[in-house]
Amino acid sequence: MAILDRYLHPQMTFDRIIPMVLWPISIMMIFQRSVILAGNGDRTDDFRPVYQAALQFLNGQPVYAENLDTVDPHYLYPPSGTLLMAPIAVIDPERSRWVFIVLSVLALIASAFLLAKLFGFAGRSWVVPVILFFFFSTETVSHTLIFTNFNSFVLLGMLAFMLLMLRRHDWWAGLAIGLTVAVKPVLIPLLLLPLLNRQWRVLVTGIGTPVILNIIAWPLIADPNSFVTRTVPYLGEARDYYNSSIAGNGAYFGVADWLVLLLRIAFVLMAVFSLWFLYRYYRRTDELLWLATSTGVLLVTEFLVGALGQGYYSMLLFPLLMTVFLPGSTMRNWPAWLGVYGCMTFDSYYSEEWSAFGRMLEFNKVTWGWSLLMIAVFCSLLFRYLDMRRDGVTSVIDDAGSPSADPALTGGGRDGGEGADAVATVEK
C-alpha cells in the first residue's frame, strides 16, 4: 500500500508549490498590464510631455514653455533629466513609447530580483514569483505602465542604492541614486541615510552625479532659466487634482488651512520620532531593517507632507513592506496592511448607487492608506519605546560594540552622538 501511495500521492514541498502556482499567473499579469492595459493607455499620458520635451531639446527649441495652468500632465524634469531622456525622441513617438514600456517591465522584473536579494532570498526561491505577483497586482505598478511613467527606473535605482550601500560599495550606491535624482528628485530624502550611517562617499556621487549632469545640460537647453523661474515654483504648489498629499487632498475637499498645517506637522513629528528610534536602536544590530524601514518612513512623509503625492509613488514603499519577513518589522500588524491596501489597491470605489460616498472613498484611499501606514509604523515603535521604559531597559550598543547607558531611557544627560544605536538586553 505504501508503494502504491507513492505513485498516487506524490509529495511536493511548499517551496515548489508556490512557484508552480504563481509563475504562470504572474507572467500572464505582466502580459496583461504591459501589453493590453499599457497598450490601451488612459486619459493620462505621462510619456507624451516627456517625449515632446526631448524632441524640443534635440531641435534646440524651448523645453519649459508649456502652459502650466491646464490639468494635463506637464514636463517637470530638471535639465539633467532632459539630457538623460533625450534619446527617447530619436525615433517616432509610438515605437519610442513601446520601447519605454518594455524597458519599464524589465526594470520591474529586475527590481523583484533585487528586492529578493536585498532580503537574503535566492533568485530561484519562491519569494520572487510572490513579489512579481504582488507588484503587478497593485495600482502603483499598473498605472506606472498604463501612464508610461519613469517610476519603474526610480524603484530599480533605489533598490540598487540600498543593496550597494549595505555592501559598502559606496561610490556605486551614490551613482545609482544620483541617476534617479537627476531625472526625478523624489529620492532626495534618502540621502539622509548614508549621512546618518557615515558613508560619506555615497553622498559624493549621490549629489555630484545630478549636479554634473545639470552643469552639462544647462548650456545645451534653449531655456534653462525657465526651469528655475516657472517649473520650480509650480513644483512647490499643492495642486487640487491628481494629488494625494495632505495639502492636495485638503485643497480638493476644501479642508481648512489650519487643519492641513496641523496634520502636516503631526506626520513630520511622527517621522522624526520614528527615524530617531530606528537610528538609535536598530542601525547597529539590524542594518537592513533600519535602512528599509527608515526609507519607508522618509518616503511616506514626503508623499503626505510635500506639495505633490501621487498614488503610483507607492511602489517605492516595497522595501518597507518586505520587512515583514524580518523579526522586529513594523509591518507585522493588520493596520499597516490595511494602509497598504489603501495606497496600492487597483480596486475602484466609484459607485452608481452611492455616487458621493464612492467618489469620496476613491479620492481618499491613497491619502488614508499612506496615513494609516505611517501611523502603524509610528505606533509600533512608540509602544516598543514605552515598553522599554516600563521594563527598565537602559542600555544600548555603542559603535565599539559595548553596552552603554541610554540617557533617553534613564532620564539623565544628553545624547552623546555616536554612542547609542541599538537595543541591548541589559536591564537595571
From TrEMBL:
Entry superkingdom: Bacteria
Region feature Disordered, mapped onto this chain: 402-428
Cellular component GO terms, alphabetical: plasma membrane
Name of the protein: DUF2029 domain-containing protein
Organism placement in taxonomy: Bacteria, Bacillati, Actinomycetota, Actinomycetes, Mycobacteriales
Spans traversing the lipid bilayer: 21-39, 98-115, 121-138, 145-165, 171-193, 200-221, 258-279, 368-386
A Pfam family reported for this protein in Swiss-Prot or TrEMBL: GT87
Annotated GO MF terms: hexosyltransferase activity
Keyword terms of this UniProt record: Cell membrane, Membrane, Transferase, Transmembrane, Transmembrane helix
InterPro entries: GT87
